[in-house]
Write a structure and sequence with these properties.
Elements lengths: L4 H13 L3 E8 L13 E10 L5 E9 L6 H15 L3 E6 L7 H9 L2 E5 L3 H7 L14 H8 L1 H4 L4 H8 L1 H4 L3 H14 L9 H29 L5 H12 L3 H15 L13 H13 L4 H17 L5 H9 L1 H17 L4 H27 L1
């Protein structure tokens, strides 16, 4: 069972109520390992992804401590350091109600973009933020479902390479292009192990789908702010690849290595990223409505947990997909891309694409009926 479980459950529901994408139990690793044995630096209880006014994705972190010996200002300094490490914009510390939090400590914490809270105050925080902290019927807000999800690699050890990545280094990578490439690469590395008949495996694909959409959302936002409106197809493709590989120099090196390993002449065209045409098409579509990408990622994460527990689409999934038509398109296209790029059975794509299309069609029909009346 998770430590400080009740506090994490409250933070989780707050995130979902605010339409932030939550991630529980994020392990923080060194940026560069100097030893063969892996040593974690620390962990974050809850990390949430929100969106700022220009569409960039930002991070919010929650530190949950139910013990009676915690120092509020001491936890503040610790969390500020972790925030710097993961590049988070704000942090919340949830403490036991019996802990004394002085106004001076609260004020000092605020100067560091940290909010100190007692457990009983999170309801007031939620109300002030325009959110709700209350039981919901959605898997993404259910801590029991999260605990079940975290047990997948105990049952299927061969999947641990991806699950460890999804819970650790993915969240600390600075570059969305690297997040995107590694997400595809990690999924491909376990592709032969995945069976669409097994709910746990379907959930792993859904997790990859959510993380992939999140990464390309940031990538697309950067592309949009750089190009605004591309003049030629070549300009679009070249800029996209440069962002995907962390700059032109890195792209040039990657292309040279790919040509050498494939035995292709320097003048010949070669794709260095899997299913590049499908990827370009997905990015072009996302550029049409980049502000709906976070909703697509939240819907995919919720659907992945629904698949794990064998439940139908939740009310949150229907809300996200029904109210955001482009989000539905992003899920369908991203699921199709990942299935092809990772060389997986088509059932992985159809599971997520079909339920998304059904919900989107029902929402559209509802709008048409209301228009007629």
């Amino acid at each position: 069972m998770l430590k400080d479980r009740a506090q994490k459950a409250q933070a989780l529901k707050l995130c979902v109520s605010k339409s932030w994408l939550p991630q529980l139990e994020v392990n923080i690793e060194p940026a560069q390992r100097l030893e063969k044995t892996k040593f974690l630096l620390t962990d974050l209880d809850v990390l949430a992804i929100a969106r700022n006014p220009i569409g960039e994705l930002t991070k919010i972190v929650f530190d949950c401590k139910s013990g009676l010996r915690e120092s509020p200002i001491g936890r503040t300094f610790w969390l500020k350091g972790v925030m710097e490490k993961v590049r988070a914009n704000h942090g919340f510390i949830l403490l036991n109600d019996r802990i004394n939090i002085s106004r001076d400590h609260r004020a000092s914490a605020t100067e560091l973009s940290v909010t100190l809270l007692r457990e009983s105050e999170i309801g007031s925080l939620a109300q002030g933020l325009g959110a709700r902290v209350m039981p919901t019927d959605v898997p993404i807000a259910d801590i029991d479902t999260w605990e079940q999800f975290f047990c997948i690699d105990q049952k299927y050890a061969a999947l641990s390479d991806f699950t460890l990545f999804a819970r650790s280094s993915y969240w600390t990578l600075k570059d969305p292009g690297e997040q995107c490439r590694k997400c595809v690469g990690k999924l491909r590395s376990i592709g032969t192990e995945l069976d669409p008949v097994k709910p746990e495996h379907m959930a792993i694909f859904g997790e990859a789908l959510a993380l992939f959409i999140l990464a390309i959302a940031n990538l697309t936002n950067r592309l949009f702010l750089v190009l605004i409106r591309p003049t030629t197809e070549e300009e679009f493709t070249t800029t996209l690849l440069a962002l995907l590989y962390g700059g032109y120099d890195n792209l040039d090196v990657a292309q040279k290595i790919r040509r050498l390993t494939a035995g292709v002449a320097p003048a010949d065209q070669i794709d260095i990223f899997p299913e590049m045409r499908s990827f370009e098409h997905l990015i072009r579509e996302m550029l049409e409505a980049p502000f709906q990408a976070l909703e697509a990622a939240i819907a995919a994460r919720d659907s992945c947990l629904s698949a794990l527990v064998g439940e139908p689409c939740s009310s949150l999934f229907k809300e996200m997909v029904g109210a955001n038509q482009y989000a539905a398109k992003f899920i369908v296209l991203a699921a199709g891309y990942l299935q092809k790029a990772a060389r997986l059975p088509i059932e992985f794509k159809t599971h997520y694409a079909d339920q998304t299309l059904v919900v989107a069609a029902a929402a559209l029909e509802s709008v048409m009926h209301s228009g007629k009346s």
